[in-house]
Amino acid sequence: MSMTRQAEPAVTTPPASGPGKESDGRTKERPVALRLLARPEVGVFLGAVAVLIFFLITAPAVRDGSSMANILYQSSTIGIMALPVALLMIGGEFDLSAGVAVITSALTASMVAYQLSMNVWVGVIVALIVSLAVGLFNGWLLVKTGLPSFLVTLGTFLILQGVNLAVTKLITGNVATDDISDMDGFDQAKAIFASSFDVGGVQVKITVVWWLVFAALATWVLLRTKYGNWIFAVGGNKESSRAVGVPVTFTKISLFMLVGFGAWFVGMHQLFSFNTVQSGEGVGQELIYIAAAVIGGCLLTGGAGSAIGPVFGAFMFGLVQQGIVYAGWNPDWFKAFLGVMLLGAVLINLWVQRTATRR
User: What pTM, to 2 d.p., does this model score?
Assistant: First the structure.
């Protein structure tokens, strides 16, 4: 007698990870800590905190409110320019003429107002037009010729450096502009670009407020607007961006013009802070702006970065610059310290990115 046995239905055991979730490591969500480390500004924030703690211990004067206000002021003069420089770097380019462009703007405003005996606001407006024109020229030449931004802006750097000195000596007979503090409109312009206000008995420069406002605006543009998407796209892959309809030419040129706007604003601050401008200044500052952006997590290859990172990068620069003085150290070591800090930040950012993206 033969017996036939029915196959029993297979019993499926639910995965331990719960219904609807895959236990495959390829789709597993990364821990929150690694996702935070993937943000470009996290590394520089931790570095800024470490440097602040270091100087709070080694330089007790840093703990004073007026000292911290001075540190924030130094940081803001770097940070205002570091923001548009960072956006340009995210877009895949950089500008070597940014430092001397600041002085070009200040010289233009001063000489137009003084030599033509006009209200200083006329000089301010003319300086804005000139600064935007310099940015427009850099961007236009870049997209029309296809030359690297290094070569284009190096040429502009040399042109502006020579023009600043030669034109100033030709018009004023000196290497510096004349004092414009007694001219019409000076007090109103100073209130916007170079005034101070009291916070708990400590004088804080208005540039600190402008710095934070510009940082918030740049963050909103990058994260919440179509233009911000364009910046990341052209920095990541220009040809692919053009293929999907991104206006590459407009984006590149407008980013250079944003750097021109930043140069104008910082130039106006310098003019209305000191009433006069030395024509030979500004050389080397472009490297400080670029370094603040790099320390803030912006890649030289483009396509990655944030607006918040350069804020902390600029703060580290201002903190080190003033902290060395408050600690009583030889200020000649400032640039060496910055070089070490720059290399350290790049290596830390590289390690953080590799750790955060490792499966």
Answer: 0.86
- Say how many CA atoms lie within 13 Å of 178 toward its Cβ: 14
Cα 187 from Cα 121, distance rounded (Å): 11
Contacts with 93 (C-beta within 8 Å, 6 or more apart), sequence order: 142, 149, 252, 255, 256, 302
What are the CA-CA distances from residue 330 to residues 3, 167, 186, 322, 335 (Å)?
A: 99, 36, 37, 12, 11
Residue with tokens 């030449």: 141
Rounded to 5 degrees, φ, ψ at 204 are: -115, 130
Tokens coding 202: 């400590």
Residue 298 near residue 304, CB atoms below 8 Å: yes
Tell me if 261 sits within 8 A of 135, measured CB to CB: yes
The answer to whether 108 and 286 are in contact (CB under 8 A) is no
* Residue-wise pLDDT tens digits, 14-58: 444 444 444 444 445 556 655 666 666 777 888 888 888 988 998
Residue with tokens 């331990």: 16
> In the chain, which ranges are E strands?
196-199, 202-205
Where do we find the tokens 């030359």? Answer: 147
Q: What are phi and psi of 203, to 5 degrees?
A: -80, 120
CB 72 within 8 A of CB 204: yes
**Exposure string over 195-206, b if 16+ CB within 10 A, otherwise e:** beeeeeeeebbb
CA 71 – CA 59 distance, rounded (Å):
13
Helix (H, G, I), strand (E, B) or coil at 202: strand
DSSP assignment letter at 312 = H
- Other CB atoms within 10 A of residue 103 CB: 27
> CA–CA separation, 318 vs 279, rounded Å?
24
Taken in order 158, 261, 74, 276, the sign of the CA dihedral is positive
Q: pLDDT digit string (tens) for 153-194? A: 999 999 999 999 999 999 988 899 999 999 999 999 999 999
Q: Please write the tens of the pLDDT for every residue from 221-256.
A: 999 999 999 999 998 888 888 888 889 999 999 999
Q: CA separation (Å) from 67 to 137, 248, 293, 326?
A: 40, 44, 24, 8
